[in-house]
Amino acid sequence: MDYEQIEKLTQRGNTSPEAIHRRLVATRLATTNMTQKELAEHAGIKYTTFRSQEQSGAPSVKMMSYYLANHQVDFNFILGGDPSRLPADTRDAILRNLSEL
């Protein structure tokens, strides 16, 4: 996959709630393969809060900190689509999920 394809899939620079929502879902599926409920429990976030944040594309600092600490997914990717700091295997898994969403 070339740079332009990656930019398009990650919607780099797009900070809309819809784009953030897509990146959050793809990140959850690629890094944890957990349901929203399972991940919320693991991250120490109430399920309804987690679901609301993921669906609205408005993640809390706690959610982004969880992804960074446990899966090396930087907030620059979640909020702005910048894949440059993602580990290669994580980036590739997220890109696969983004292409399927």
Tell me what portion of residues adopts beta-strand conformation: under 5%
Name the average pLDDT: 95
Bin the helical content: over 70%
Structural domain count: 1
Helix-strand pattern: HHHHHHH
Q: How many angstroms does the end-to-end distance come to?
A: 17 Å
Principal-axes geometry comes out as globular
Total E-strand runs: 0
Number of helices: 7
Low-confidence stretches: none
Structural class: mainly alpha
**Main β-sheet description:** none
Radius of gyration: 12 Å
Structural topology:
Layout: H1 3-10, H2 17-31, H3 36-43, H4 47-56, H5 61-71, H6 75-80, H7 88-100
What does this protein structure show overall?
It is a single chain. By secondary structure, this protein is mainly alpha-helical. The protein has one domain. It is built from seven helices and no strands. It has helices at residues 3-10, 17-31, 36-43, 47-56, 61-71, 75-80, 88-100. Helix 2 (17-31) crosses helix 4 (47-56), helix 2 crosses helix 7 and helix 3 (36-43) crosses helix 4 (47-56). The mean pLDDT is 95.
Give me some keywords for this one.
101 residues; 0% strand; 7 helices; mainly alpha
